[in-house]
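Regression test attached.
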Amino acid sequence: MAEIQKVGVVGVGLMGSGIAQVSASAGLETVVREVDRELLDAGVASIRRVLERSVQKERISGEQRDATLGRVTATLDLEPLAECDLIIEAIVEDLGAKNELFGALDGLAPERTIFASNTSSLTITEMAANTERADRFVGLHFFNPVPVMPLVEVVRTGATSDETLQAAMEFVKAIGKTPIVCRDNSGFIVNRLLVPYMLDAMRAYESGVGSIEDIDTGMRLGCGYPMGPFTLSDFVGNDTLYRITEIMFNEYREPRFAPPSLLRRMYLAGYHGRKVGRGFYDYSGDEPVVSDFVKR
Ligand code: CAA
Ligand code: NAD
């Protein structure tokens, strides 16, 4: 199988912008696609911000920043993705939306193009089965924040070919990340363990074990986690986490994957976390403080 030289990233939100940045920084031509101009511009601005920080820290030069940005092509159309060797989907965690996208791409992209999903909780099989290229379909599950987190889970289904798996592993190494191979089950390795932990923290809070701040401090200082579970949930996005729990609960039918009622209410009320400025914490001041919504 030919080497991956041109990468498509669909969705330039929290994850897609990071994936596009690491791809372009590794020297690969990278096409990013969004649904509207404002979101597309915001995604590219976020890539520029991260590169700018690297220039300030003297990790890269201004020329390298410009060359990296020069490798990013931003588009609202699907057609430019058809020239890519690998297309990574990073849109909303919704099977219908993902299948609609992959269905359209399947008709456009040449045979050689590998499809990958960055899904957190859907199985790769349920997307691959809706295309004519199940053998050229993998999961590439990145972690947030993508520029910092070294891991990528490479997910193989029963239909993924050896060549596709090999090409995906090589791509992950080429962008400076560490791949681990996972079988195709909901949540793969990391989220299967991490999601119930975050949900348990919410249930512990609901049952009065301690305050939001104390549970976060407990896990940070007691276990050395970089963020407590509520800070992490706000960081992942409470909307995304809520969708993940619905999918994982539906798959496994185990109470530990069920969304706690607090998470559901936060999702419904728009307390989607750091990206919107409010979640378990309110981020509008100098320091985050616990949201009134959670306390009431
Ligand atoms: N983009 C790019 N770089 C970022 C960044 C971002 N969004 N956020 C932080 N950084 C960089 C900073 O620039 C800094 O770089 P240098 O060390 O080179 O100066 C470095 O990361 C450390 O940042 P800070 O000093 O500001 O803050 P920190 O030490 O608290 O680290 C963190 C920030 C790396 C995010 C750390 O808090 C952390 O590791 N948190 C846990 C993250 C985690 O668990 N992610 C997985 C989420 S689950 C998931 O992704 C899967 C899923 O499907 C839901
Ligand atoms: P996000 O809401 O920040 O970004 C999703 C983006 O996709 C939005 O900007 C949206 O406009 C865009 N989009 C939706 N449909 C589109 C389409 N058809 N074409 C192009 N763009 C489209 O979400 P996110 O947190 O970046 O999550 C994206 C995916 O990555 C989800 O599947 C999520 O489960 C997964 N993921 C998230 C995290 C995390 O920590 N947030 C970590 C790993 C994986």
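Expected vs. actual: identical. The chain has twelve helices and ten strands.
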